[in-house]
């Protein structure tokens, strides 16, 4: 009976192991790039170190439950409260493991810094990434092209990403290449990745961002050679690929692309699209637009103390940003009426 039960349990355990390992294909445990490989090693080492505590605890729990089960003549000591041996083991082992994990974390954090360029004898390819609801825009500033929901680069060539968002915060992630990093409006984050072999890898957003989140996917394609990548670039510029070609990516076409379907059931991915040319500084123009006149302070709006540098209205004679010279004001251009008010009046108007 016991032998039969052992065989059944072993078969169940084998089936579970096979199922779990099958789920690793295409994910972080199946890396295809230098960064992903190093991160996989870090995950395995950290897991094994933690299992040094978990496995003995599980074993001793089962052992003590069996040893002190009802019916055994074990010594009963209800007033027992201390054992130097047990205290030493319970505290020493976790302390040693935490120290080891701390050293590994310190070294790996610096070695796998996403802002740190990868060492290579080849120049990085620059790609600017914009997350939109719900699609990904990839701009190649040095090549003068752009693509939607498709990222291409040569294998064994490092890629330097600049990542931002058109609105909702997302997380740029290619699991097999490693290192997810957030995209945020008005900010630029950086990431460096490389594919050690050619292939097509799944790219996703790892941060929930709305009803169309499930369709926010793209393909990262590492071409076999740099010549293959160059041929793709020339095809995008010439419009010879069997893909939607939207012409130039300027501010008008950018804003049209940024529009999203408000249908809550919109989950279908946006089809792959190309732009055979791009407007100069299109990426940074749309990053800095969140830093200009958006979110103005309206506290003094409508009062006689309404300053232009807060409200943006030059009709009342207040100074503008362009009229300021390193923090110095032209006193002749100040509104004389405002200066005649007392401090109490200013507080009253501001509270209104």
Main traits of this protein?
352 residues, 36% helix, 9 helices, elongated
Question: Can you give me a brief rundown of this structure?
Answer:
The protein is built from nine helices and 14 strands. The protein is α/β, with parallel strands linked by helices and 352 residues long.
Summing up helix and strand content along with how strands pair, one would put the structural category as: alpha/beta
H and E string: HHHEEEEEEEEEEHEEHEEHHHH
Strand content: 15-25%
Describe the main β-sheet briefly. 7 strands, mixed
Mean pLDDT: 80
What is the tally of beta strands?
14
As residue ranges, the low-confidence spans are 309-352
Rounded to an integer in angstroms, the radius of gyration calculated over CA atoms is 30 Å
Helix content: 25-40%
Count the helices. How many?
Answer: 9
**How do the strands line up in the largest sheet?**
8-5-1-2-3-13-11
Quick one: overall form? elongated
Distance between termini?
85 Å
């Amino acid at each position: 009976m016991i032998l039969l039960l052992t065989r059944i349990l072993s078969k169940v355990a084998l089936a579970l192991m096979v199922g779990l390992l099958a789920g690793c294909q295409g994910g972080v445990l199946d890396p295809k790039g230098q960064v992903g490989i190093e991160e996989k090693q870090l995950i395995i080492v950290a897991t094994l170190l933690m299992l040094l505590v978990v496995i003995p605890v599980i074993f001793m729990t089962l052992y003590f439950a069996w040893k002190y089960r009802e019916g055994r003549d074990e010594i009963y000591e209800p007033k027992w409260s201390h054992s130097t041996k047990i205290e030493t083991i319970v505290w020493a082992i976790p302390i040693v493991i935490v120290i080891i994990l701390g050293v590994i974390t310190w070294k790996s954090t610096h070695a796998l810094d996403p802002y740190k360029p990868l060492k290579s004898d080849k120049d990085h390819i620059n790609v600017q990434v914009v997350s939109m609801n719900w699609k990904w825009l990839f701009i190649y500033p040095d090549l003068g092209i752009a693509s939607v929901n498709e990222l291409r680069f040569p294998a064994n060539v490092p890629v330097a990403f600049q990542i931002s968002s058109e609105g909702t915060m997302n997380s740029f992630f290619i699991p097999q290449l490693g290192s997810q990093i957030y995209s945020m409006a008005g900010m630029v984050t950086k990431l460096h990745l490389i594919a050690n072999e050619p292939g097509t890898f799944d790219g996703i957003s790892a941060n929930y961002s709305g009803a169309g989140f499930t369709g926010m996917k793209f393909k990262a394609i590492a071409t076999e050679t740099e010549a293959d990548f160059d041929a793709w670039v020339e095809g995008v510029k010439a419009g010879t690929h069997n893909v939607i070609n939207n012409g130039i990516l300027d501010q008008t076409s950018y804003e049209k692309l940024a529009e999203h379907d408000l249908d809550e059931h919109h989950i279908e991915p946006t089809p792959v699209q190309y732009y055979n040319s791009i407007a100069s500084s299109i990426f940074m123009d749309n990053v800095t637009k969140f830093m200009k006149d958006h979110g103005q302070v309206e506290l003094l709006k409508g009062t006689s103390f309404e300053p232009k540098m807060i409200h943006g209205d030059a009709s009342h004679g207040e100074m503008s940003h362009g009229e300021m010279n390193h923090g110095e004001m032209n006193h002749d251009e100040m509104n004389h009426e405002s200066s005649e008010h007392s401090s109490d009046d200013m507080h009253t108007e501001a509270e209104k």
